[in-house]
């Protein structure tokens, strides 16, 4: 155990600020918090009417503040780079599932672009209840510091903090105990932290905590993508702690509580009646689809070479349910979420590393963790996957990026591009879970091959070419990154729409913008380029809306009304869309419809596109995908699905594969698939109101109400 009184006694007060917490009205306080840890400055800002109307909240506020704080050439580790955390007008309601989210925005060390990450835990709601619609952190501290916000007393401090741990599961426990008055009060504390690996690895993440009274442990949710934790630790922030006592269902002071209640009651009943026979989120969480992805050839295996594996049954959802995940406990990461997908394995004994022998609570596995740390690396041992899951979280490592990087390095090792000398003696073959764990431990220390892994696939490709004479073209085809961000854990080879869902994004290939694999590949609902372009307009804009509001996307499409299949557009879940319209109107007193919902997102989405262009990127050439995301790169890949690919050559191209070598067939297939992606790109850009080079036109910006001079100044240079 740790003596938090002794740890706290070593804190040195650097700055203190007292304030009168602004009252919430219709989902907003119209105040934001600015903290400069380099200058030890704390102040409040008023939110302008224009900002509120055009940027709404959440991700929108984060982008606006980051734009204003930075220059076009600001680097991720420059002092002026900010970390902005914001909920949204619906953040913090307790009547509707999934309303505890916040968005974190910064300039990414992975992509040199704006990265945004949606995260659960209690921090976002507590920040709003404490009087702030957003929080900006700017500057760099000289020594490790903690920012503490007491939302009840109206007091904020910056404190030098030399003795606390760095790793997420330890520091969150320490600070929860330190700032809580008693055991019951721990539920009123939320901690943002990173971990020791985030000191060194560009793939560092942020942990947002919530206290689980039933388990008696502090649990963690992650803002995982793009290296936000690396920015956090580079600024020498150990933690941001918030305390708010008195959470209840009407703190947003909504305009019409009845609209909110009606939507919530209907969805709660639907989840109760149908979740157990639909996605089983309350039983297993997002890991429910492991075996489904394998069945449809969509589970990434061996660095996205294959889509299934005979050993997948060893990590199927029932294995985690029966052997590891604690059942019978509400598992929402915010109050009132009956979908309860935040599963956990309790009293899990760690076998390696500095916490060997410790019994810990592992938050997971999520599908992405099982697929990325597991199948994509050829690892089908659920214990090793859970241990890697734990260490990624506590060290502050993005599990998606780490899994994809490991898979890339493992393929390079098996193909002889790198050897044991390069890996520091590690036998980095597919399936070696202990080697994967050793990479994590090295990463936490900033040592060995693990330190290189933490740089990401894009940097590894450069290293392997320079130091090991690798073929750059081949690495670019098999290295599953785009814009510098690793691809998340779905195999998109047979879904052109999902290739666009990854490639035609603002931040890089993350499925939170558009997950169209089933709609496109399995159900064939969007057969033409125009159909796909419409889907790649609507779904990214609709999903952006969750990030403006402070909502989780899972209640939208991981549970469905029993008659949803009878609606005109079942993929959109029209009943749920209407719920969201009612929630927004109920909280804010507005009278938007489903079309205005999309328009709100479109404004912010196009702003982010122009932000990227302002930074010298965000154009068509950055939207290209590695070919492995589109088709077979190697002879082994082609021949694993030879019957399928040969048939496609005949039916789609009129090409006779008889008597042709596999290399010849790969070449013909590649030309066709690359051309299909270019045609899709043309169609999507046109639908989004962009030029053929991916620049939003001034006419389109005017039509959506984003005719801002600073945006016109950027786009004028690229017309």
UniProtKB/TrEMBL annotation:
Q: Which UniProt keywords apply?
A: 4Fe-4S, Iron, Iron-sulfur, Metal-binding, Oxidoreductase
SUPFAM superfamilies per the UniProt record, alphabetical:
Aldehyde ferredoxin oxidoreductase, C-terminal domains, Aldehyde ferredoxin oxidoreductase, N-terminal domain
Gene3D superfamilies, alphabetically?
Answer: Aldehyde Ferredoxin Oxidoreductase Protein, subunit A, domain 2, Aldehyde Ferredoxin Oxidoreductase Protein, subunit A, domain 3, Aldehyde ferredoxin oxidoreductase, N-terminal domain
User: Which Pfam family name is an example for this entry?
Assistant: AFOR_N
Record SMART domains: AFOR_N
Q: What domain of life?
A: Bacteria
Q: Which cofactor does it need?
A: [4Fe-4S] cluster; tungstopterin
Family from the record: Belongs to the AOR/FOR family.
Q: What is this protein called?
A: Aldehyde:ferredoxin oxidoreductase
Organism equals: Alkaliphilus serpentinus
